[in-house]
Amino acid sequence: MTHREFKNCGAVRLLDLKAEAPEDWDFSGATHVRVSLPAGRAGQAAMEARGFVFGDRSLDVEIRPRKTKIDYGRLVRIKPEAIRDHRRELLDIALAAFPSDRRFHVAPDYDPLVAAAVLEAWVDELGEVLICRLKEEAAGFLALRETGDQRISVHLAAVAEKYRSAGVALSLYAGAVVRAVEQGYETIEGRISSLNMPVMNLYAFLGASFANPRDVYLKVV
User: Fold this and answer.
1) pTM score above 0.90
2) Digit-coded pLDDT (tens) for 139-157
3) DSSP string, the chain
4) The CATH number of the domain covering residues in 61-212
C-alpha cells in the first residue's frame, strides 16, 4: 500500500509517496514528486525506467533514554529555551543550513527557489521549538513533533554556521532528550540522510540505533 501526502508550498505542489515497490502512480495536481522505497538496486532500476532520479538514502534513528546510561542533562552546555514566536530567525538559519537536504531540495537539479518554498512551508508549520542563543542571537533550533505511543520525533533542527563548533547541536539534541523524558516520552525518533555524517555521529554519541534504510527518488512532472 502507498501512503500519499500532498504539500502545497506556494508554486511548488509536492506529492510525497511512501511505498514498498514501484508502481504507476497518479501524479495529478503535483509539480514535483518524491518517492520513498526500501533501499535496493532493483528499485532504483525500476524507478529510473519511470523517469525518476535517485536523490538520497535515509535511515530511521531512535533514542531510548531509559535504555542507556547516558546523563543527557550533563551534555547540555547551552540551555535551550522553548519559544513559539520564531518564524523569521528560524527561517534565516534554516535557509542557510540545508544546501542539499532532499527534504527540501525536491528538484533533481537542486533548484534553490524550489527548496526555499518547501522549507518555508515546513517552518510555517512548526509550533513550539527549542532554541539556543549565544550573545542574544539565535544560534540554532530544534522542533519536536509527537508521533504517538510515548514517542516523539525530531521534526527539524539546524544550527547557524558560525556557531557549529560551540556545542549548540549537542545542547539542542541532548536538551530535547531531557525535555522528552520529563514529558513522559519513552522514545525520541527521527529520520536522517545517510550523507549527513555529522548528525549521524551525534545521534550515535547519544546512544541512538539506526534501521530501515529507504531510498528517495525525485521527479518533476
Assistant:
1) yes
2) 999 999 999 889 999 999 9
3) --EEEEEEETTEEEEEEE-SS------TT-SEEEEEEES-HHHHHHHHHTT-EEEEEEEEEEE-GGGS---GGGG-SS--EEES--HHHHHHHHHHH-SS-TTT--STT--HHHHHHHHHHHHHH--SEEEEEETTEEEEEEEEEEEETTEEEEEEEEE-GGGTTTTHHHHHHHHHHHHHHHTT-SEEEEEEETT-HHHHHHHHHTT-EEEEEEEEEEEE-
4) 3.40.630.30
